Amino acid sequence: MRPARSLVVVLGAMSVAAAALLAVALIVGPGSVDVATAAHVLWGHTVGNPALVSRSMDALVWELRLPRSLLALMVGAALATAGTVTQGLFRNPMAEPGVLGVSAAAAMTAVLGFLLGLDALGSWTTPAMAAAGAALGLLLLAALSTRTLSMTTLLLCGVALAALCSAVTTLMLSIGTERWDLGLKVIRWLMGSFEARTWSHLSWTVAPVALGLCLAWWLVGDLDALALGSDTARSLGIDLGRTRGVSLVCVAVLVGAATAMTGVIGFVGLVVPHLARLWVGAAHARLMPTAALGGAVAVLAVDVATRSTTGLSIPPGVVTALLGAPLLVWMLLSGERSE
Amino acid sequence: MIRQTTARRSRRTALAALVALVTACAREPVPTPTVSGLPQRVASQTILSDEVLWSFGSSVQGRVIAVSRLADDPAYSSVAGQWPSSVARAPLTSEALLASEADLVIVADFTAIETRELLARSGIPTVTLTGFSGFADWRHNVTAIAEAVGSPAAGADLRTRFDTELAARSAPAPTRHSRTVVSWAAGNVAGSGTTFDDVARAAGLRNLAADHGIAGHKPVTIEQLVAWDPQVLIVPCDNADACDTVAAIVAAQPGIAATAAARNSAVFALPSRILYSSGWAMLDAIVALRRSSPGEAVAP
Q1: What is the distance between the alpha carbons of residues A337 and A331, in angstroms, rounded to a whole number?
Q2: Distance in angstroms (rounded) separating the CA atoms of residues B25 and B19
Q3: What CA–CA distance (Å, rounded) separates A139 from B114?
């Protein structure tokens, strides 16, 4: 087995990549914003004089691109961290945050909001509905987890919850099938998007993602012990019930926050932890920050790439799946060959 | 050598059989039966035909047995609540259409192909409306419906009334100095070849999306919208009472607040029924857009 790369080197490289992508994100897109203009906008807001550039340039850079890009970093970190915790909890490299059904529950209540026309009340309503759905999913999972000690059972309950929520979502769509504008809104949201995400969305995301990341860091030792098996972990003094409960809350908060803000973006939570493991090894103290930063860079890169290479609004979830699926297969086959 | 020849012959035989099978299974295009006689049981499956049939008056209304499920939805239909309860609100299922024993069904080209083919195979005369973009399409659809129900005079009369109203409500044609407008709904803009394009020109406004080469309805990012910087921005609202609130929310949205439209209080929300209409309400949209221009005194 290859020795794990230096954590500092890996995190340093990814931080540089994130900063570079952020700079690029501010200048790509419509409106002919160059580096100097973007710098003026940032400087203007830093010194409290945003009138240094035109109103539209300021809007493009400060009100639209910067918060959108920061949100992409945050969502990527949240999804990748949630994936790492999920894979550690279930000791299954194929586990990803969506299996717990939280994102499906969030999508279900978001669609309900569209069906009831609540989205017309303001940009906060859809994230609020999605967050409520994520919370509902978490409560159901928490209730189920107290009734079973088996991880397999819990995993299957999550799968059932996801299926149930997807069915309800489809039912709601079928009820409103003639309303073409409803279908357009729902499909666009379900595909995931960073379009028109602003400082408000970012501010709503900071607290839950920070909480989730802190919980994930707290779980590092428990997950390492769990990797040795349940009995070994128990003998090392790990409270498996508490670990499972905290893990569920962590994953639900991270996935719920990400889905509430941007819709469903898949594959990040599945693939990025695998990549991180290749670079820094399986110890969670190294894996967790690497996956978080790796997810942040990956999602921002996808957003920048789609905005800069095409005028179409390609959903980020589509790109992460198109890239992630073959990459995952390649990693798995490479891993088998090396073994 | 003999084995290779035999194998090659078997492959050729299999390929020929496959081609024959595919050819046999290929469906012949099902011809749409032509409408003959005066239909007495008309089922309307589009909002536009709901409205047009109502406009034709009692002689036609009395022969309508079913209207679309959105006929009573004020967010979409201009005849909401007008069709009597004795007229069924038909669900868009093939079974329900067959069970209604309609002798004329009016559908659209976006109606499920399976439904349209079933109607044709069942021998039920069907009128398929194509094109719901603008005044020309409306005139074409009115003609098709009028001929199908055996009331061409009613169709001609409706078209004449429409054209008279259109002339009365229209502003002078836009020039390059005219105010620019964008219709923005669920992230989509309406470019050239859309109803909104016709309506905007009739209102004397320049459709900025069409000016930028957009044809039809296309998704446009909010950044692009900000870069275009329209002088008037039109968005939809579901409930006429909430339009002012919706407009205010949109105008305050980060990015949009920087546009000339928002800065000059020229963000307007129109009821969906008017903004999305491909029927008579297009004329109401013209009036609404003209009212968005300062100094415009337009009679309702």
Answers
A1: 10
A2: 10
A3: 43
Do the strands B64-67 and B88-89 form a parallel or antiparallel pair, or are they unpaired? parallel
Cβ atoms B155, B146 nearer than 8 A: yes
CB–CB contact B242 A120 (8 Å): yes
Q: Check B186 against A188: CB less than 8 A apart.
A: yes
Tokens standing for residue B165: 């109203």
Q: What is the DSSP string of A164-218?
A: HHHHHHHHHHHHTTT-HHHHHHHHHHHT---TT--HHHHHHHHHHHHHHHHHHHH
Whether A124 has its CB under 8 Å from any CB of chain B: the answer is no
Residue B223 has its nearest CB partner, among A30, A58, A178, at: A30
Mind listing the pLDDT tens digit of every residue in chain B (300 residues)?
A: 545 556 666 666 666 666 555 554 444 444 444 445 789 999 999 999 999 999 999 999 999 999 998 899 888 899 999 999 999 887 656 677 777 788 999 999 888 787 888 888 888 899 999 989 999 999 999 999 999 999 999 999 999 999 999 999 999 999 989 999 999 988 889 999 999 999 999 999 999 999 999 999 988 889 999 999 999 999 999 878 889 999 999 999 999 999 999 999 999 999 988 998 899 999 999 999 998 766 554 444
Chain B contact set for A179 (CB, 8 A):
70, 76
* Yes or no, beta carbons of A31 and B272 under 8 Å apart: no
Q: Write down how long chain B is.
A: 300
- How far the first Cα of chain A sits from its last, in Å, is 9
ipTM: 0.73
pTM: 0.79
Q: Which residues of A touch B249 (CB under 8 A)?
A: 120-123
- Could you give the CA distance from residue A27 to residue A130 in angstroms, rounded to a whole number? 31
**CA-CA distance, A186 to A222, in Å (whole number)?**
39
Q: How many CB pairs under 8 A join A and B?
A: 86
Among B135, B154, B127, smallest CA distance to B52 is for B154
The answer for residues whose C-beta is within 8 angstroms of residue A251's C-beta and 6 or more apart is A82, A85, A86, A89, A97, A100, A102, A212
Whether A55 and chain B come into contact, CB under 8 Å, resolves to yes
